[in-house]
Amino acid sequence: MTGFYLLPEFYYIFFLSGLVLFCIVYSTSLKLHYPLLIKSALLNSLYLFGLIFFMYMNTFSYNEFVSYMTLQVTSYTTLLKLVIVVLSFFLLLLTLSYIKYEKINSFEYVILVLLSILGLLFLLSTNNIIILFLSLELQSLSFYILCSYQRTKEASIEAGLKYFIFGSFASALLLFGVALLYGLTGITYFSDFAVVYSKIPNFDLLDIMSLRLGIDTFFSGFTTDNAIALLGLTLLIVGFLFKLYAVPFHVWVPDIYEGSPTSVTALFALLPATAIFGFFVKVLYVSFLPFIDHWSLILLITSTLSLILGAFAAIAQKRIKRLIAYSSIGHTGYLLLGLSSGSIEALNATFFYVISYSIMTLAFFSAYMSLRKQVTGVLVEYIADFRALLKQNPIIAAALAVAFFSMAGIPPLLGFFSKLYIFLSVAEQYRYFFLFLCITTSAVGAYYYLNVVRVMFFETKSQWVLFRKVPGELAFLLAISIFAIVLFVVHPSFFIALSYKLTFLLLL
C-alpha cells in the first residue's frame, strides 16, 4: 500500500500522457477540420487538479513518512503539494481568460505548464540529488519555452534567451555543487547527508579557508573535508538562489517578467516562490543543519542585497511588470532574512510570509489581467495607464488598492502581519541593524506601491481609455484573493495554523 502515497503523481503522469496523445491525434485530423484543442486541454487540466487535490487530502496525515529512497513522502511535502495544486488551479483559471484574448491556439502551451508543475511536485518529494536535478530541469526547460512562447514579439524571444543562458549557468553551478557533495561522501540521498554531517564537529568560518578539518565517519573508505563540503553546499545554495530571484542572481528577472506572456509571468511569480522555497527550507534545516553558521551567513548577505535593490530599484520603474519584478526580489529578501535566523519562530514567520505573498500576488494578477483596452484588447503596460481608474472601473481600482496596501504592509491587512512576524523574528535574534534595514526598505517599498494607488485615485487623464468586460474566471479569482486578504483581519487563525503546521511537520 505504500505506492498509494504516490498515486496523485502517477495519475498526473498518466493524464498528461493521455492528454498529449489525444491532442496530437485530434489536432491533426483532417476529418475534424484540425480543431483547436487548447481550451479543451485547459478545462481537462482544471479537472485534473481538482481530482488530485482530493487525492492529496485523502493521503494526508500528521504521522506520514513513506520512503522510496529516491522519493520521500512526508506530511510536510504533502501539505506543500496541496498548496501548489490550489495555486496551479488558480493559475490555469488566469490562463483560461488570457489565451482567449491573446489568441494562443497551440495546445502545447498547456502541456508545458503541466510539465513545469509536474517538475515542482516531484521536486518536493525528492530525496536524491539526481532526481533533484532532473526535477529542476523539467521545470526550467518548460519555463524557457513558455517565456519565449510569443515568437512574433522580440521582447519574448529576448526574455527566453536570457532565461535560458542564466538558467543554464545556475544549473551548472548546482550540478557542480551536488557533484562535490557526492564525490566527498559517495552518497546521493539527502537523508543520508543529515546523518553524515551530524558527525562533523563545530568549526570557525573565518578559519575554514586555511584549515583542513577532516574527520573519519562511520562510513569506511572515505574522510569528510569541511572545506569541500562547504564549497559544494555554497554552489548548491547559489543554484537555488537563482531560482528564487535573489540578488546578485537577479539580473534576468525584470526582463523575464516584462517579456513573457502575462500568464507565464504569474506562473513565475507564484509557483517557484512556494515549491522551490519549500524544498530549499527542507534541505537547509534537515540535511545541512550542521552547517547553519555557513548557510545562514550566505542567506543574510543575499537577503540584505535583495531588500536594498528590490526597494530602491523599483522606484524608478515606469512599467508595471518591471515594478512587480523588483517587488518580487524585495519579497525574496524578507523570506531569506527570516530563513537565516535559524529559529522555529523565524521559520514559522517565513512560511506565513510565503502564504501571504502568494495570496497578494494572485490578487494583483487577477486585477491586472482584467484591464484590457476596449479597442486593442491589450493589457495596460505603464503605471501611467492606471490614471483615473477609480472613475472608469471602481471595483478593479479598489481591488488593486487592497492588494497594493497589503504588499506595502499597511495595517490591518494580511501583508502587514506577514512583515511584522519577520520583523519580530529578526529582533528576537538581536539583529537590530537588519531590523532597521527591514523597516527602511519596507517604507521605501510602501512608497512605490502607494504611488500606483495615487495614480489610480487622484490623477486624471486627458483622453479616456475604455476597458473590456472582466471575464468571469478573473472576477472569481479576484473575489477569492481579496476576500483572503481581508479575512485575516477578522479570522487570522487559518493562515497562522497553516504556517505552524508546515513548521511543525518539517521539524517532526
What would you note in describing this structure?
The structure is a single chain. This protein is mostly helical. It has a domain at 288-508. Helices cover 71% and strands 2% of the residues. The strands form two sheets. The protein has a two-stranded antiparallel ribbon with strand order 1-2. Helix 2 (38-59) packs parallel to helix 4, helix 3 packs across helix 19 (493-507) and helix 12 (320-340) packs antiparallel against helix 13 (344-368). The longest helix has 32 residues, at 154-185. 50% of the residues are buried. The model is unreliable at 201-224 (pLDDT under 50). The chain crosses the membrane at residues 12-29, 41-59, 79-99, 106-124, 161-184, 227-246, 267-288, 294-316, 350-371, 395-418, 430-453, 474-498. One of its GO terms (cellular component) is membrane. It holds the Pfam family Proton_antipo_M.
